[in-house]
Amino acid sequence: MRTPAFALLLQAIRPQPDIDGMRRLATQVTDWDALAMQARLHSVAPLLLRGLHMAGLPVPQALKACSDTAVRQSLALTRDLINATAALSAAGIPYLTFKGPTESVLAYGNPALRSYDDIDLIVEPADMEAAARVLQSLGYAIPNAGIPPYGIHPVQILLHRRETRSAIDLHSCWTQFPRLYDLPFAQAYRHRLAVDIAGSPVQTLANEERFLFLCLHGGLHFWGKLNWICDLAWECAATGHDMSALSRRASEFGLSRSLKLGMALAHDLFGLPMPQAIDAARLPAGLGYLKAEITGLLETHPGQPRRGRVHSLLCHLLLRDSNDRRLAELQYRWRMNVARA
Predict the structure, then answer these.
(1) Cβ count near 303 (within 10 Å)
(2) What is the pLDDT, as a whole number, of residue 279?
(3) How far apart are CA 236 and CA 226, in angstroms?
(4) Which residues, including other chains, have CB under 8 Å from residue 160's CB and lie 6 or more apart?
(5) CA angle, 234 then 235 then 241, to 5°
């Protein structure tokens, strides 16, 4: 049973909130500062502020302060993204960005409505070191003043800029385990989408590939924050995805279970219409358990990681589409543990 405060939060951050329902729920909320804290932990403070304004409800000072901070950070990172991608383009380095400002513009229509705390960029593995040098020329630094030797090319480099307290996560594959999203960069780049942000074109994933990545990313973090589920609801409202085509693409990438779980959560929490092509009402074995656990933890433990390595591993494996993919992930995790030992 949801508390009135959490029910109000869920209603307020929908693409099209029920204004009368919000007003009824607001009369039952007793601790507005606690509601503001929940919004901050779920990274949805600007969305909650928008919803309360739409319903003509009072805005707690704690929420306004939290939203103002999130908006300033988002706009600063948007500026940093424009500068970084312009520098990479000038150096002739193909790139794509995902999540962050481009997702905010495409799904929410505003780079400040979605909260994020870093910039994600991906390049060809062979371009990783050159891309890192370009970003260093903009004032970003790599911890320990070196590029980590993750094999021939690094998988991920985190760069920080002390003056602005901003960070860029530079990737050469979509996740640390490449087989989770077996989309070659060259293929993704051929089908890329150019997003206009403040008059600057920024390259990101095409619609279907971007939506599937959101489902994969949310699952990797056990959908521990509402903002990741919000992305799916707002994406569907803004872009009108062809769910039959999306379902076929998910099957090709082994992400059918990730897609179904994400859509089921968006349906339960935000009233997202459930297309027949997804049929998330009939979840595969194990996903119903995950959905129930996630929805419970979202209210009581927002953003907190799952406890216990074994439990975490089992939940990861439940999201894989086949035994072959489960075995491959187990082998990968075993090699990583051996390498760290």
Answers:
(1) 15
(2) 65
(3) 16
(4) 140, 141, 143, 166, 167
(5) 135
| Token couple for 118 | 């870093």
Q: Is 154 a residue whose pLDDT tops 80?
A: no
Q: Which contiguous run of DSSP H or E holds residue 200?
A: strand 200-204
Whether the predicted pLDDT of 152 surpasses 90 = no
- Of residues 194, 248, 197, 3, the one with CA closest to residue 81: 197
* Between 147 and 171, residue with greater pLDDT: 171
The end-to-end CA distance of the chain, in Å, is 44
Hey, what are 217's tokens? 């990313």
- Tokens at 68, concatenated: 């103002």
Residue pLDDT, tens place only, 317-340: 889 999 998 898 888 878 777 666
How does the average pLDDT of the chain come out, rounded?
Answer: 90
With a pLDDT cut of 90, the percent of the chain lying above it is: 70
Instruction: Output phi, psi for 238, to 5 deg.
Output: -90, -35
Task: Give 242's DSSP letter.
Answer: -
Question: 59, 53 in Cβ contact below 8 A?
Answer: yes
Burial of 60 (0-12, 13-18, 19+ CB in 10 A): buried
Written as one string, the DSSP assignment of 169-187 is EEESSSSSSGGGG---HHH
Helix or strand or coil: residue 149?
coil
Token pair of 192 as six digits: 């890329």
CB 280 within 8 A of CB 341: no
| Of 13, 3, 185, 200, residue with least CA distance to 90 | 200
Mean pLDDT of 68-84: 96
Name the DSSP class of 167: E
Assigned token pair, 34 = 């606690």
